[in-house]
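Entry 12.
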Amino acid sequence: MARIGVFIDGSRGRIPPAFREKIVALVKEHPEAAFCTEEEALTSPEGLERMKKRLEAGGIDRLVIIGESPKRYESSFQKWGHLIPLNPYLVAVANVEAQAFGFVEDEGEALEKTKAAISKAMRLVSASRPIETQSIPLNPEALVLGGGIVGISIARSLAQAGIHVTLVEKGEQCGGRASELRTLYNRPEEVQKWIEEKVVAIKKNPRITLMTRSELRQVDGHLGQFKAKIRDHDGTETDLSPSAIVVATGYATQRDKTKDLYRHKRVVSLSEMERLLSETTGPFLRWEGKSVERVTYLLDQVNEDLKIDSMNAIKQSLLFQEKFGGQVAILCRDVKVSADGMERLYRKAREKGALFFKYDEPPQVLIEEDLIRIDVKDTAAIQKDERWPVSIPSDLLIVGEAFVPNPETERLSQLLKIHIGDRGFLMEDNPQLLRVRSNRRGVFVAGGCRFPQEISESLIEARALVQEVVGLLSRGSYTFDLAVAEVDPKKCAVCYTCPRLCPHSAITIEKYAERNTYAPPGPAGETQWGAARVNPAACYGCGICVAECPAKAITFHPLNDEQIYAQMGLPE
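Predicted 3D structure (tokens):
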């Protein structure tokens, strides 16, 4: 029989002394109660110290606190240090202040509710079992996939923190999509020079191993036990044992070649216009041998929910106006300037003469031999019947390209067992985890492979990821509670239900079990049978596998069946 120590917290007078006397009488009815002590303010340092001394005197193996919300006591224990000489999973709280006394006017009814809450807490803690902690070593090694500007920044920052980084880039050169840009809207330096300086820095850093024309071919294991195989262009394979894996492979762009508009010689993409503006040195901008004096940007035909096209169009319009003195019109559904300094840039473009037209109905594009005319109904007027059509002649029409997942994104998601969103980007819908974390502990995602965004925002995300990885690896080990699911191998039917359902890929099928009831007859010489196994360092304790196991072979340690019955007030 369990020996339970009971502390009644008066909550600084919110539970009156007279009511506490009746609670003491209720506690004494339980045969498992070893003692019952009253405290006026149990969450104070003095109250916790008195509780510690009483528990250290011995004679009990479990603890029940009768008072306020469990969260209040948990935060107090964390604030003043872990003072209780008991396993934290052998402690239960009866929140009588809120559940019984706080909202019931009739004292008799409040007492009945208090009695039920105390009985539930006593039964719950009696059925509890101690849960210990475990640690796994973490070597200061990380694998970064993707040599774009995000991957480079992450590798440099991790190396500065003393972590050895292997940077794997599939292409021949580092830089990624940023290499297509010549200028940034918020940086004075040239992008090419900026990237080259960063690439030179990572090549000189002794803590960074750069592997170009290489790709990840295989990954096994979990946090602290990853085994990765990298293959280069010659077919040579390199085995790595990183403690953390970072995915920063970026995104790709795609032009809709099914539309005749995009095949016309006077229709160019934003990236082509970027290159044209930077490479033209004379006083006039020319395209296909003809002078370009009027340009029109047609946005929001693709990437309507992204702001990258708007930012690049405003930036390019300023360059075109300042360098060549031309006329610019920007057609869009919405002007997206929600980035640091973009509103100022937008106002500057308007002051220079750029015309902005917002539309609801898609503009009509008429293509003549050497001229493009765009007819758009301007929505500046509030009344729809007052909106008038505008015809804009242009020498060049600049359109956006659709941002799509990198071709290797799906393969990487299968290798790393991380989630992929509806549009094909990694961890695009991530409501329960931090932005840079994935569904697998030790695997992180940042940059355009997660969601296409402007470079400055991606670099902020990169810094957040670095903090996560450094915080994980700097301690040299990862300590975790064994408050996770566990499989009884003798009951496991090897139906593969749990590994298919586990959202964190924490369950594998291994040959470590004795022959179980569900195993088919086989050679007598076999001493081990396949069974599911949960890696406790990778398990988040969600309990999905426990609920879905058809053989009832999985147990969730913090909440066994007896505790569930106690919580629900059901007989065993």
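Annotation: Residues 269 and 400 are 6 Å apart (CA to CA). The chain has four domains: 4-131, 141-253+404-477, 256-400, 482-556.
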